[in-house]
Each structure stands twice: as structure tokens, then as C-alpha cells.
């Protein structure tokens, strides 16, 4: 059967950008920048983008394009003993898919609330107590299923399923062509108004005010690198799957640069938006900005609703903001499901319709664990291990395999031979030395820290079972699939 293909170059870029731009850009990036030195964070961030983000994107686009397979098949073609890395990445994608959808579900609920600001004045109590109904719960004491959270999650699953089920061109590409322009227009409209509110510029000054003492702090560099891999959707099977549908004649270098620059540009724009709003809020409440900002999920679901309450025309701003969040989340969710679906199609020769139904059906059932009273805590714990341990390990191993066990100069020659502009030797330096060295240090620190200090006050049993245990099971499953694999590639592909 002939492999599906994107209908146009713009379609591919919009889909890749749709994957990259996600919840991570809208609430994670602004807070990270703020926490890690404000304006000074941009130095490690841009450095990580240039030395890790762009080279990684070029590498994954070329793997998918050349080897014409989702991650497991692509790695198997580099050598039969590498197939497990593809499955490990697919398992990361599968886990993220089932908790990310919970956040999209919350955003859908909040889209509903935003028309009349029915979250009230105490947005903190509203989110944690009234909406999530978080009581004396923990990741191992989830409580009961919350229908009012499950229903918006079902809506999110239905939209993602429809896109995956309909195929690369008729589903994913079409959805991206609607969602991405819509997202850009909404964000520009928001920012065009916010920037003129009193106090907004103070918020921006705050975001961009550099704290140079932070630049020497290893944690800041770790945060910057971690954010780059997550934000660009590299290292967890997505971009390899998407680029496996590229037509033969494709400009890899140009596509990779565009995807990275649009994503990171969007992040900075979202930073302007969020901090503009916070600056306004601080001014309205006559408080310093440090007192209005809150971390992580709290930023989107506690602080922003509180800020919307204070805005002129809240019934326009609120829906625009939460619809942007929903759209950004859905286009990423679609891509992460496609990473899993395409791997099953390759491996089991299922039809797309069957693979999409199995993936979304089982994903939906498991995701209901996050629609419980303790769902947020489970999400927090799993997300920590996936991002800080599993994803960074996967990226490091991918670099080692591609750059050290194979000839990386072959990749450079390959992409240069099909691209309009060429990339130089810096690419090899980044992929062979700089990025692996930095990643190894960061990962080592994460391991030690997590081992010694745990995370987030969760119990040893929870950390062992839902953190280390989960990553261990993912790894073992991947290795077992690799060992059972009979279909060795006819010949190992040369890049
Ligand atoms: N790049 C996404 C973001 O920044 C991360 C992601 C991609 C998450 C795909 C899930 C699925 O939010
Ligand atoms: Na992103």
C-alpha cells in the first residue's frame, strides 16, 4: 500500500507547527521565563533553540522523510537493534496523549465558564475545590469519576479521533489549516488590545527585565533545554511520523527552520500576552506583579480567570483566550495520537481506521483516571517523570545512536542535497558534542535530584509505582517488542 502524503508544503508546516504550538507555549513558557531570570532566560532558551532545537528538528525530519516510517520503523531501519527506541518514544507519546487531553478538557469547561465568568471571584477555590473537587486525594487515592470533567474530555477525544480517523490529508492537514490560522488571529486580536491596557507595559518590563545572576545557574539551563524538546515535539515520535508523509521533493532545512522559528516566536508572543495581562492586573489591584502570578496549571486556570474578571469586555477576552488554549491543545493532541497510530499501522499492517479506533478507544478509557478527584495530582506526578526522566533520556539516546553509531555527516549531506539552503558543519558539532554533553549533564542531575529528594511531596510508594515503575515498564515493553520483532529490515538503510 502506498504511504499517505501531505497535500501541500503549507499543509505539512501548519501540521508541524500545530503540533509544536501547544499548551506548553501558552502557559508553560511565560512562567518558565519569569521564574528563570526573566529577560536573561532568553539567552539559554535561544541557545538551546539554536544548538538543540533546530538540529534535532532537521534530524527528525530527515529520518522520517528518508526512512518513510513512524519512529519504530525508522529506527529499525537504522539497525534492527534500535527498534526499541521507537517504541519507547511511542510509549511516551501514548502517556502524554492520555493526560494532555485532561488539560484540554479543563480548557473546554473554562471556555464555557468564560462567557459569564461563572468561576466567580475566588478563582483559586473555584478551580481546585469546586471544579476539580480535589479533596484529601493523592495519585494513589483518586476518588470517583467526575462527569463534568469527563464530558469535555470526551469532546476533545471526539475531535482528535475524527482527524486521525480521516487520514493525513483529509483529517490532520485539513484540521491544521483551520485551527492554526484561527489560533494566530485570536492571539493577535488579544495582544492588540491587551498591550494598550494600563499597566500592561509594566508587565512586559517585568518579563524582560534580565536577572543575569541566573545565567550561571545550571537549573536555568536545564529548564531551557527541557522546554525546547517538549515545545518542539521532538524526541517522542511525533515529528518522525509527520515527516514520513512528506513527498520525495521536500525542502527539509527550510521546513525545520520555519517550524522552530514559528513555534518559538509564538511562545514569545504568548509571553507578551500573559505578562501584559498580569501587569494590568497588578495595577488594578495595586499589588506587585510577583503577588499576582502563580505557577503551572494555576496560571491558566486561576490567575488568568482572575485577570479576565478585571478586564473590560470580559465576555470577549475570556472566550478568546480559552478557545485559543483549546485549539492549541487539540492540534498537539492530534499529532501525538498520530505518532502512536502510524506506528501501529506500520507494524501490524492495520488499516488507519482500525488503528485510530483502537488507539483513541483505549486511550479514552485510560484517560478517565484523570477525570477523578485526584486526577490533577496523578497528572502532575506522571508529567514530571515523563518530561524530566523519560523524554530527556529518549532524546539523549536518539542523539547517541544517530550521531555516534551512524555517520552524521551523511544526514547533513542528505538534507543539503534536497534543500534550497545548506547547513554547515555547526550542525555536526551540535548533534555530536554540544547537545549530548549538555543533555547528559542535565539528565544526570535530574536522576540524582529525583532519587534523593523525590518530587512534589508524593510518597515513596507513589514515586516508585507511578514514576520510576511506569518508566521502567515503558522501557521493558519496548525492549520486548524489539526482541520479538521478526520483521528485520531487508537491508539496513544508509542515510
Ligand atoms: N509541543 C507541545 C506543547 O508545547 C507539546 C506536546 C505536543 C504535547 C504534542 C502533547 C502533544 O505543548
Ligand atoms: Na510548543
Task: Characterize the largest beta sheet: strand count, sense, and whether it forms a barrel.
Answer: none
Secondary-structure element series: HHHHHHHHHHHHHHHHHHHH
CATH architecture: Up-down Bundle
| CATH level-1 class | Mainly Alpha
Strand runs, count: 0
**C-alpha-based Rg, rounded:** 22 Å
Query: Could you say how many structural domains there are in total?
Result: 1
Number of helices: 20
Overall, the morphology is globular
Q: Percent helix among the residues?
A: over 70%
Beginning-to-end CA distance, first to last residue: 23 Å
Strand content: under 5%
**Low-pLDDT regions:** none
List ligands, each type once: phenylalanine, sodium ion
Average pLDDT across residues? 94
Query: Could you please say which CATH topology applies here?
Result: Amino acid/polyamine transporter I
Structural class: mainly alpha
Main location: membrane
Family: Belongs to the sodium:neurotransmitter symporter (SNF) (TC 2.A.22) family.
Protein name: Transporter
Keywords: Membrane, Symport, Transmembrane, Transmembrane helix, Transport
Keywords, please?
single chain, 495 residues, mainly alpha, Amino acid/polyamine transporter I, binds phenylalanine, binds sodium ion
Describe it:
It is a single chain. By secondary structure, the chain is mainly α. Helices cover 76% and strands 0% of the residues. It contains 20 helices and no strands. The protein has helices at 9-20, 23-35, 42-67, 71-78, 83-114, 123-131, 147-166, 168-194, 200-208, 218-231, 238-243, 252-285, 289-292, 296-310, 314-348, 352-367, 375-405, 408-418, 426-453, 460-484. The protein starts with 8 loop residues before the first helix and ends in an 11-residue tail after the last helix. The model has no long low-confidence stretch (mean pLDDT 94). The structure holds phenylalanine and sodium ion (NA).
Amino acid at each position: 500500500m502506498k504511504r499517505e502524503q501531505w497535500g501541500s508544503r503549507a499543509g505539512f508546516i501548519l501540521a508541524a507547527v500545530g503540533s509544536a504550538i501547544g499548551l506548553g507555549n501558552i502557559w508553560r513558557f511565560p512562567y518558565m521565563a519569569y521564574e528563570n531570570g526573566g529577560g536573561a532566560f532568553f539567552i539559554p532558551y535561544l541557545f538551546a533553540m539554536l544548538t538543540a532545537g533546530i538540529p534535532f528538528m532537521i534530524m527528525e525530519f530527515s529520518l522520517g522523510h528518508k526512512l518513510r516510517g513512524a519512529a519504530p520503523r525508522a529506527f529499525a531501519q537504522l539497525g534492527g537493534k534500535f527498534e526499541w527506541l521507537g517504541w519507547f518514544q511511542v510509549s511516551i507519546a501514548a502517556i502524554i496523549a492520555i493526560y494532555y487531553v485532561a488539560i484540554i478538557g479543563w480548557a473546554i469547561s473554562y471556555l464555557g465558564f468564560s462567557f459569564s465568568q461563572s468561576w466567580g471571584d475566588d478563582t483559586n477555590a473555584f478551580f481546585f475545590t469546586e471544579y476539580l473537587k480535589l479533596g484529601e486525594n493523592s495519585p494513589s487515592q483518586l476518588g470517583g469519576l467526575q462527569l463534568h470533567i469527563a464530558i469535555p474530555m470526551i469532546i476533545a477525544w471526539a475531535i482528535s479521533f475524527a482527524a486521525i480517523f480521516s487520514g493525513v490529508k483529509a483529517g490532520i492537514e485539513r484540521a491544521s489549516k483551520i485551527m492554526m490560522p484561527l489560533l494566530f488571529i485570536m492571539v493577535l486580536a488579544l495582544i492588540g488590545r491587551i498591550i494598550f491596557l494600563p499597566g500592561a507595559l509594566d508587565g512586559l518590563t517585568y518579563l524582560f527585565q534580565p536577572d543575569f545572576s541566573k545565567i550561571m545557574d545550571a537549573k536555568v539551563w536545564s529548564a531551557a533545554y527541557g522546554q525546547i524538546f517538549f515545545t518542539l515535539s521532538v524526541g517522542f515520535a511525533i515529528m518522525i511520523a509527520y515527516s514520513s508523509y512528506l513527498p520525495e521533493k521536500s525542502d527539509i532545512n527550510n521546513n525545520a527552520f520555519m517550524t522552530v522559528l514559528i513555534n518559538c516566536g509564538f511562545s514569545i508572543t504568548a509571553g507578551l500576552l500573559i505578562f501584559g495581562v498580569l501587569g494590568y492586573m497588578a495595577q488594578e489591584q495595586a499589588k506587585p506583579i510577583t503577588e499576582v502570578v502563580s505557577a503551572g496549571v494555576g496560571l491558566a486556570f486561576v490567575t488568568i480567570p482572575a485577570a479576565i474578571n478585571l478586564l473590560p469586555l470580559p465576555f470577549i477576552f475570556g472566550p478568546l483566550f480559552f478557545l485559543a488554549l483549546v485549539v492549541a491543545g487539540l492540534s498537539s493532541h492530534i499529532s501525538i495520537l498520530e505518532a502512536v497510530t502510524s506506528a501501529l499501522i506500520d507494524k501490524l499492517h492495520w488499516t488507519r481506521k482500525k488503528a485510530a479506533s483502537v488507539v483513541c478507544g483505549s486511550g479514552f478509557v485510560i484517560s478517565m483516571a484523570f477525570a477523578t478527584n485526584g486526577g490533577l495530582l496523578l497528572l502532575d506526578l506522571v508529567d514530571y517523570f515523563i518530561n524530566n526522566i523519560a523524554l530527556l533520556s529518549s532524546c539523549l539516546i536518539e542523539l547517541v545512536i544517530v550521531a555516534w553509531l551512524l555517520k552524521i555527516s551523511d544526514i547533513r549531506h542528505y538534507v543539503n542535497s534536497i534543500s534550497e539552503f545548506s547547513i554547515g558543519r555547526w550542525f555536526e558539532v551540535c548533534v555530536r558534542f554540544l547537545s549530548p554533553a549538555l543533555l547528559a549533564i542535565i539528565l544526570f542531575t535530574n536522576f540524582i535530584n529525583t532519587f534523593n529528594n523525590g518530587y512534589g511531596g508524593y510518597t515513596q510508594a507513589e514515586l516508585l509505582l507511578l514514576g520510576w515503575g511506569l518508566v521502567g515498564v515503558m522501557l521493558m515493553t519496548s525492549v520486548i517488542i524489539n526482541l520479538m520483532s521478526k520483521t528485520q529490515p531487508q537491508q539496513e538503510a544508509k542515510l
